[in-house]
Amino acid sequence: MQNNILIVEDDMAIREMMAFSLRREGFETYKASSGNEALEQLNQVHPDLIVIDWGLPDMSGIDLIDMIRRDDVIKEVPIIMLTARAEESDKVKGLERGADDYLTKPASMLELMARIRAHLRRSSGFETNHRIEYKGIVMDADAHEVSIDGNPINLSLTEFKLLKLFLQNPNKLLAREHILNHIWGRNTFVEDRTVDVHILRLRKALKKHHKEKWIQTIRGVGYKLAHT
What we know:
alpha/beta; Rossmann fold; 4-stranded antiparallel beta sheet; 40% helix
């Protein structure tokens, strides 16, 4: 599957060169010349990785990273800072504020590409176990398989995504808007009722294993997964 990379860089020559090199390597690229333009892009697409310059015309790259890390939908996306600021204190600040990696200009495209691929491998699970367990529910996210107390359960793609979201956030209240953004995307026009319908379907699948009551309704707010 093609990975999406968002490039946030105010220098047009550098931005276009990076986009060209990434497309040549098989990546889908999105470009932004400012922090606000990047935020607009993030309302349209959920990138697999973001490359951010420090010195943007309307805000610092650090401030943009702060906004991304506070957003529940995209806060886990890997971020590489690519900047002319080469002081060790700047690198420390960038990493402490939420960047996953820090490269100083001029950086070779070969090195940037290698670091992009390394972060994508980690974020896609090649270096982590995508097995999630909760009270007898076992999900293998890579194999797209779920079992309850050792018995396999068949779920639609949406039901699978819903259950994965709940398993990743056990005993945590998930608002309908939060669920909508994660499952259908922030810019998709889907009614809150759609969440309720798919929750009903997930409960129906869990009922065969006597776990339907684990998906609890918090009236007027959303849902949470809790062992009863």
